[in-house]
Amino acid sequence: MADRHNRDIDRQLAPAPEPLPVPCVDAHAHIEIVANTAVDSPEVKQVLDDAAKAGIDRIVQVGYSAEQSQWGVDLAALYENQVLAAVALHPNEAPVVADLEKDLAIIEKLAEHPRVRAIGETGLDYFRTPPELRPRQQESFKWHIELAKRSRKALVIHDRDSHDDVLSILEEVGAPEKTVFHCFSGDVEMAKKCIERGYILSFAGTVTFKNAPALREALSITPIDQILVETDAPFLAPMPHRGALNSPAQIATIVRAMADERNAELAEFATAISNNAERIFGSFAAGTSL
User: Fold this and answer.
1) What percent of the chain has pLDDT over 70?
2) Burial class (CB in 10 A: 0-12, 13-18, 19+), 78
3) Rounded distance, CA 154 to CA 152, Å?
4) Structural domain containing residue 79
5) pLDDT digits 0-9 by tens, 200-226
6) 153 Cβ partners below 8 Å, 6+ apart?
7) Is residue 47, in this structure, part of any structural domain at all?
8) CA distances from residue 110 to 37, 71, 114, 115, 278 in whole angstroms, order as listed
9) The pTM is what?
């Protein structure tokens, strides 16, 4: 995954959006890729300051490897009140790491930190993982599900070209009470299955893309208490800046598009999904825990 991330940071940052009228939460970002530097660097602080100016005052920093998950925990510890962390091995990472058991042990230890509020992103990705590596990926997914249940923390799922198997494994192992489909990519039928099972659908900048009417239809039928919003920064910048470097500030653009799609009042909608984030991940306030 490192090569892909390095390519992404060479792009131009999307322009600052019009601020939201009320504060909101970015439920999934990779700030270290946006800033490509240490947690205490001015560049990281600038990403967080830019987000706050746009009304995005809370961010969930999400893990994809043992090393990067540690970075996320350090960030959440440094920026109390503003950042929480999720830790995991990404489904593309798990089948290829040199010592899977060692890395999983690191994730399990990090999950004990009070600023870690979710296990993710884990799941399945059949787009990048060949068939011969998928059983190892599936076993990693099951391990992360069990960790989420043991630690009583939310599960954050990466699901690419693998809807049926993700749903099947969740049924087989038993989904945690709080299960989030990060960057939801399914159609209405997939959304209905998730809604029925009580899963949370997190919508990213893809919901603004011209070629994504199925996503907008899924958004329109999802109950308000099962919706989150995310950037997946630095990926998936929303229209009209598709292809630019994404950052948490762009939640303002995505939330506006989502509210328009649902014919919802902007401030009420932003407040509702912020409340969802705090219900799922807990309070961002310093000194709090689940």
Assistant:
1) 97
2) middle
3) 7
4) 21-281
5) 999 999 999 999 999 999 999 999 999
6) 111, 116, 117, 118, 119, 176, 178, 290
7) yes
8) 21, 11, 9, 10, 21
9) 0.95
